[in-house]
Amino acid sequence: MDMRKGIVVHSLVLNMVGALLVLAGVGLAATTARGLLNYRMAASRHGGEVTSLGSDMLPQAGQYGYMVRLVGTPTVVEAPRDPEFNLRVNTPVLLRHVEMFQWREVRIGDAVHYEMDWVDRPLDASRFEEPAGHANPASFPISGKQFDAGLVQMGGFKLDPVLLHALPGSQQVAPDTKSLPENLAASFTLYRNHLVTSAHPDDPRLGDLRVSWDEVPLQQLTIVGRVSGDRILAAADAADGKGYDVELGDVPLLDMFPDLPVPPEFVMSRQILAVLLAALGAFLLLCAQHRQRDVLLALGLGGLAVGIVACVMWIGADWPATCGWLAVTLIGFSLTAWRLRRRR
């Protein structure tokens, strides 16, 4: 009686542990798939799942249309040039600022007063409350402009103008008076990194011009964008309306897009472990019910159970993954059918 009772208890324990292991295997496969699906769904809002290229930042076959993450310092191949002032700078973007010394109206509460200052746009004095004695020139003889580099690369990829305009940072450029055209050299003098038309720079007069330049510095950046041949550009179909990101320094992807969930790690290892756990559980169930230690049958049952669940979860979301799990399911089914036929 005691021996029979012990056998019953042993069988019950094997059944419980086996069932738990099968559930653990199926659950591990399901949570891994769910984690990947949630991550891809969130990533699709920014253009799609992002692949970090690391130091291998070269165009390769099969990359077209994929989102990638690049880390490095851009290289200016064709530097921008301001043709009017004959100024060329090794920068992705060169900005020319033009200001004129003008009257401007200042209101503090109900009080109105007028002062002269450098302003980067023409001020229409006719709109002043007291226009008499505060007339400004009608227009600027020279306007501010932006000059983009002809070619900027990150590794082997060319950066699209949208990404160039998103590069962070700005620093002033000291102009070279020796390179000025003769007509401008006669009109402008260098004063505190500005070119000014003032006869006395410390005491400017109405209508005097002040010209300066800013450049985007070359520094380490992290860029996320879509591959199109040998170019990196914005993903036009991204739901966030942007489809790219540019950050200063080496920034992790999850810091660039805080709304992304943390994707599961060691995906392949987790999937293999899921099948092995389910197979071990099936083996214990077979031992408890049939007193048979058929490893191949257990492996087939484990693959079948995990494969069916994973295959259903991936249907319509990722056809390569669906086909992979379908193959696991078919192999598990074939192995199970073969072992059962052998037993008969």
UniProtKB/TrEMBL annotation:
The chain crosses the membrane at residues 271-288, 295-317, 323-340. InterPro entries: TMEM43_fam (IPR012430). The keyword Plastid does not apply. This is TMEM43 family protein. It is a multi-pass membrane protein. Keywords: Endoplasmic reticulum, Membrane, Transmembrane, Transmembrane helix. It is found in: Endomembrane system; Endoplasmic reticulum membrane. It comes from the Bacteria.
